Amino acid sequence: MTIPSKVRLVEVGPRDGLQNEKQPIRVADKVRLVDDLTAAGLSYIEVGSFVAPKWVPQMAGSVEVFAQIKQAPGVTYAALTPNLKGFEAALQAGVKEVAVFAAASEAFSQKNINCSISESLERFLPLMDAAKQQGIRVRGYVSCVLGCPYEGSIAPTKVAEVARELYHMGCYEISLGDTIGAGTAGETRRLIEVVGSKVPRNKLAGHFHDTYGQALANIYASLLEGIEVFDSSVAGLGGCPYAKGATGNVATEDVLYLLNGLGISSGIDMDLLIEAGARICAVLDKPNGSRVARARLAQA
């Protein structure tokens, strides 16, 4: 299959990247991050999530963040909404697109959201109905697609079942998440082949963590399978509190470097992106997780 000539990156740093940070993060710093990412040319930014603060304290300021960011024409500013209550809160905040998430692992689903996969999907039905009535697009996530910290290997057919349910439920796009970052290129291609038999490939996206250093290889494998959308996090921020040892998402800077090398258009300015990542890492007082950013900043 021919590699796509254009790729859309879904920037999840402000949500997936910051939600596991232990230290408090000011709303102003979150707003600056989103504005920096907008300036860098990201066309899709997951700004926050509308969940109970006791579960994800860092996302408590999502309403204020949405109120203060400078929303640019043509850019999607989305939020994660796990249930109808979260969706209604997002709607009041003026959010125009939301995301829901399910797992391909029963054990992970129980540990993460205290219910079975089927129960989690049932919870989305009223949300999907409300979104349809309000004209709000819904994106779906499936976690643990290439392995689970509790169950180990996950059958691609199981991933395909969950992805198909989300798609038929009304999710316009399904992001396949390698939550523990253990997948390999061969497994990735097989996964897309199986899931692609149930959900059109142009409705699939890749979400790869880099725990085993395989994220870029898996993205390249996905490109060979015709996937044109990938989730990434500026400076490689993020992780998973329910997956012990799992490092952050693949860094947006590193994915962009790969795409640029392949001649694939993304519309993102590398210099501004690196600046955005360096600024938020300074705020967090933590090392930059992007290899490309570290190399470029060392040369500056």
TrEMBL record:
Q: Which InterPro entries match?
A: Aldolase_TIM, HMG_CoA_lyase_AS, HMGL, PYR_CT
Keyword terms, alphabetized: Lyase, Metal-binding
EC number(s) per UniProt?
Answer: 4.1.3.4
Metal-binding: is it a keyword of this entry? yes
Domain Pyruvate carboxyltransferase, chain residue ranges per copy: 7-274
Q: Which residues form a coiled coil?
A: none
- Which is one GO molecular function term here? lyase activity
Q: What pathway is this protein said to act in by its record? A: Metabolic intermediate metabolism; (S)-3-hydroxy-3-methylglutaryl-CoA degradation; acetoacetate from (S)-3-hydroxy-3-methylglutaryl-CoA: step 1/1
What is catalysed by this protein? (3S)-3-hydroxy-3-methylglutaryl-CoA = acetoacetate + acetyl-CoA
Q: Which domain of life is it from?
A: Bacteria
Task: Name the CDD domains on file.
Answer: DRE_TIM_HMGL
EC category: lyase
Pfam families cross-referenced by the UniProt entry: HMGL-like (PF00682)
Record family assignment: Belongs to the HMG-CoA lyase family.
**PANTHER family linked:** HYDROXYMETHYLGLUTARYL-COA LYASE
Its protein name is hydroxymethylglutaryl-CoA lyase
